[in-house]
Write a structure and sequence with these properties.
Number of strands: 3
Shape: elongated
Strand order of the largest sheet: 1-2-3
Distance between the termini: 52 Å
CATH topology of the largest domain: DNA polymerase, domain 1
CATH class of the largest domain: Mainly Alpha
Helix content: 40-55%
Number of domains: 2
Structural class: mainly alpha
Oligomer: single chain
Strand content: 5-15%
């Protein structure tokens, strides 16, 4: 990297090598980081009247970042959580640059000093037992599709799995009891490539096998 001031080469290394090869972040996180800079670069380019390919690292100033974050909430109607996700991507990039070029340490410190915004607590909602029982009776269990939908609803209810975790299940992730006690163990692959095991008690082994 000849010019350590130019933003483009740094950003390419960050998105193509660092978060993918070194950090091995989850696919969704990689896409979120990429999208953050897809939004940030045109915003800064417009503000300072400088084409994106000519931007320098230190053109990303704390003041412009704060304006960008306000723009996300006010003009794009993004939630506080999304605003904080974009900030996390920018702060991670600043840390990456500073760790490889000490000349950018002061700039990095300024960027990392920008704090996340506290979101208002979301009301917790849940379904009552009667509501859940009514829901699982909706699928037509006389059809294969209905049996699969019924099994999926029971699985989500009994394990607390996210829909994304259920869709990533493979046959080897299910360990069905052979002792007749209607218990099963499932391995879930969650956000950030986290793996956890959850017990699943259902009406019968055949219902889980349908899933």
């Amino acid at each position: 990297m000849r010019d350590l001031r130019t933003l483009g080469p740094w950003l390419r290394r960050f998105l193509a090598d660092y978060i993918f090869t070194e950090r091995r972040l989850a696919r969704n996180t990689q896409m979120s980081y990429r999208d953050s800079f897809t939004l940030l670069l045109p915003f800064i380019s417009t503000k300072i009247r400088k084409s994106a390919d000519r931007l320098n690292v230190e053109d990303i100033t704390p003041a412009l970042i704060l304006q960008f974050l306000a723009h996300l909430e006010e003009s794009r109607s993004c939630s506080v959580q999304t605003r904080n996700q974009r900030l996390t991507a920018i702060r991670s990039f600043a840390r990456f640059v500073a760790s490889r070029d000490p000349a950018h340490l002061a700039w990095c410190a300024q960027i990392r000093a920008i704090t996340t915004k506290k979101a208002a607590p979301q009301p917790v909602s849940w379904m009552s037992r009667d509501e859940m029982e009514a829901l699982v009776t909706v699928p037509d269990r006389q059809t294969l599709r209905g049996q699969a939908e019924h099994a999926l609803l029971l699985f989500l209810y009994n394990t607390g799995a996210r829909v994304s975790e259920a869709t990533r299940l493979e046959v080897g992730d299910l360990q069905i009891s052979r002792r007749g006690d209607n218990h099963a163990l499932v391995t879930l692959h969650g956000k950030g490539n986290k793996i956890c095991e959850s017990a699943c008690k259902i009406g019968s082994d055949s219902v889980l096998m349908t899933l």
